[in-house]
Amino acid sequence: MEITIPKTSDVMKALLRADYTTLWRNRRANIMVLFVPLIIVFSWKSFVNLAGGAFVLSNAITLGLVAIGLMGYTNSIARDRDKGVFQRLRVSPLPLWTIMVSRLLVQLTLIIILTLIVFISGYSMDNIHMSVGGYAAALAVSIVGGAVYLSLGQAIVGRIQNPETVNSTARLIYFAFIMVGMLGEIVIVTNPELKWVKDIVTWTPYGTVKDILAGGLEPSKWNMHTTDSLLLTIGYTIVFATLGIKWFKWSTK
């Protein structure tokens, strides 16, 4: 009896169709991911004149990327692993890399949607105008920034097996990023003499992603510090991804 192994392209199409269907069915949860970034755009309108439109948009997108990587990605991976979805896919004649690539492509779609919505909201609500090149560069950089939090989410779900513990840990880290990010950035703008706060926030994953997004939105202001932030962002991604791949198990059993 001849066994026909499906083509990799056909496998990817089937996996993407299933993952996008799941994404649509969980659209309420995904809408909540956009909630905090839109609050930032709406409530930080006063900071546009004080610190610039790039400051507001970069912080809003960064918080959205944190939510996608820590709240969305980790919980979906932990849930499907606990239900045995990955174990069933693993024993099927599918290349293992296609399973995770499909999930990551879905997250990439969310990152692009998030970034575009923040751009549109900033333009309509805060009257923030950036150049076409700035928007394009920031969109590309948002993918690089999103990779940091997806890899961090992978490390969390790889190290922790219990889905409830994954959820609580991701929420705790998400809250920490909100505190470091939102409150830290407000302190930096309103109290510039507190240099030590700026130094701490700048070199965290939140700070580096925010800086490269701001640099992308205003390419003329991209400098050596922004380049250092980009390199450190890539470094964070490599470290988190390496740990996430090393620790990850396809089953909780």
What's the arrangement of secondary structure elements?
Layout: H1 8-25, H2 27-33, H3 35-43, H4 46-51, H5 53-82, H6 85-90, H7 96-125, H8 132-159, H9 163-190, H10 195-202, H11 205-217, H12 224-247
Helix pairs in contact: 1-7, 3-5, 3-7, 5-7, 5-8, 5-9, 5-11, 7-8, 8-11, 8-12, 9-10, 11-12
Characterise this structure.
This protein has 253 residues and is mainly alpha-helical. It has 12 helices and no strands. The protein has helices at 8-25, 27-33, 35-43, 46-51, 53-82, 85-90, 96-125, 132-159, 163-190, 195-202, 205-217, 224-247. Helix 1 (8-25) crosses helix 7, helix 3 (35-43) packs parallel to helix 7 (96-125) and helix 5 (53-82) packs antiparallel against helix 7. It is globular. 39% of the residues are buried. The mean pLDDT is 85.
* Cα shape: globular
Kindly state the percentage of residues in helix: over 70%
Number of strands: 0
Tell me the fraction of residues in β-strands, as a range: under 5%
* Number of distinct helices: 12
Quaternary state of this entry equals single chain
Low-pLDDT parts are: none
Main β-sheet: number of strands, strand sense, barrel status? none
Q: N-to-C SSE series?
A: HHHHHHHHHHHH
Distance N terminus to C terminus? 33 Å
Q: What Rg is obtained from the alpha carbons, in whole angstroms?
A: 19 Å
Sheet/helix structural class: mainly alpha
Mean pLDDT: 85
